[in-house]
Amino acid sequence: MRNFARVGITLSLIAAVAATALAMVNAFTAPKIAAYELQVIKDALVEVSGGYAVGDQATTDDPLVTNVYPLSGENGDTVGHILQLVGTGYGGEMVVMASYHADGEVIDARLLANAETPGLGKKAEVPSYMEKFKGTGGDTAVPVKKDMLGKADADSVSGSTVTFTGVAKAIAYGSDYVKSLGGK
Amino acid sequence: MAGEKKSILTKGLFKENPVFILMLGLCPTLGVSTQVINGLGMGVAVIFVLLFSNIFVSLLKNVIPNSVRIPSYIVIIAAFVTIVEMVMHAFAPAIYKSLGIFLPLIVVNCIILGRAEAFANKNTVMDSILDAIGMGVGFTLAVTLIALIREVFGAGTITLMPIGGFDGVIEIPLLYTYPVRIFSLAAGALLLMGYLKALFEWNTNRKGR
């Protein structure tokens, strides 16, 4: 019985010391991480804005659309929206930032936080990955399947089809969402 | 005695290389070895975790009851991995991003648990430190070597840290235009791993004779 207590106490002590150490490191790094994540979002907003002014963030009830930012043209009228979307890739949830004209046509997009495989799905973080989506969603449908792509684009997503489908579906969903907003 | 210490330090490099000879930690090795910088980043993270987990396991070897030694090691290792993860996220976000899921998976990296169980809990702190450095550097060498070969042939580039005007990517003329794609995919990694293992095995056995 004595031995049993000793085992329990030793294990709890080790866990307690480890937890304290983690809490201390976390207190030190958490603000830096938060600032970095915020910067990533800000940079992405500017990158996808297509030269339009980005308005204030608004949240939505839609579980797949986290945030909406209106885009305004030179005379202040709303010309489109940037959406922060949730997609599902090979490594679970992915955050996609995509901008649209008011008619649902994709201006540009970026893949942000994700847990895709380095060297395969991770390549979707490169800005040029999104070229295949630009200009779709309006008159032409967003390519959500590999056979909707040209050969060069299809080759570029080979080995990471799940990531591609996840990103594409999120962008397509966003396009429909923007259409449902109307010209607002 | 000095020779013995030296052999603890150097055995991890070639003779008992954790990846090629002991066949430990293959999952992260094959997973992150797509770019040289990922290999180096993973190596540094593993050296750090291995060093501190070996030190603490060795220090506590008489305190930890035998029946719960594995859970205790896991707690110690997990704590250091989480510290590495948070520090990398805050100070080296680019590497943190590219390592992705493989960083938290260091917790279950068999090299670290293997060294705790097979070495640190039987040896002095000093020897455990030497063992950790040797094995850690051996792992880094292995993963960087695989990454170098895979990146050069598979993508025609060598990705390092961006410093100043240098964007961190060296392009290799012919291979950049006509890369051998199989090397960057999983099958290529396994094939390459097999050949490198044969090479290291030959090297170890040759000296043993």
Secondary structure elements and pairings:
The complex is a heterodimer of chains A (184) and B (209).
Chain A: H1 2-48, E1 53-54, E2 58-59, E3 65-72, E4 78-89, E5 92-101, E6 106-111, H2 151-156, H3 161-181
Antiparallel strand pairs in A: 1-3, 2-3, 3-4, 4-5, 5-6
Chain B: H1 2-10, H2 26-32, H3 36-59, H4 69-91, H5 93-99, H6 110-120, H7 125-154, E1 157-159, E2 169-171, H8 173-177, H9 186-208
Antiparallel strand pairs in B: 1-2
Helix pairs in contact in B: 1-7, 3-4, 3-5, 3-6, 3-7, 4-5, 4-6, 6-7
Textual characterization of the structure:
The complex is a heterodimer of chains A (184) and B (209). By secondary structure, chain A is α+β, with helices and mostly antiparallel strands. Chain A has helices at residues 2-48, 151-156, 161-181, and strands spanning 53-54, 58-59, 65-72, 78-89, 92-101, 106-111. In chain A, strands 1, 2, 3, 4, 5 and 6 form a six-stranded antiparallel sheet that branches. Chain A starts with a helix and ends with a helix. The mean pLDDT of chain A is 84. Chain B is mostly helical. Chain B is 67% helix and 3% strand. Chain B has helices at 2-10, 26-32, 36-59, 69-91, 93-99, 110-120, 125-154, 173-177, 186-208; strands spanning 157-159, 169-171. Chain B has a two-stranded antiparallel ribbon. Chain B starts with a helix and ends with a helix. The mean pLDDT of chain B is 84. The A-B interface holds A 3, 6-7, 10-11, 14-15, 18-19, 21-22, 25-26, 29-30, 32-33, 36, 91, 114-120, 122, 125, 159 and B 31-32, 34-35, 38, 60, 63-65, 67-68, 71-72, 75-76, 78-79, 82-83, 86-87, 89-91, 93, 97-102, 184-185.
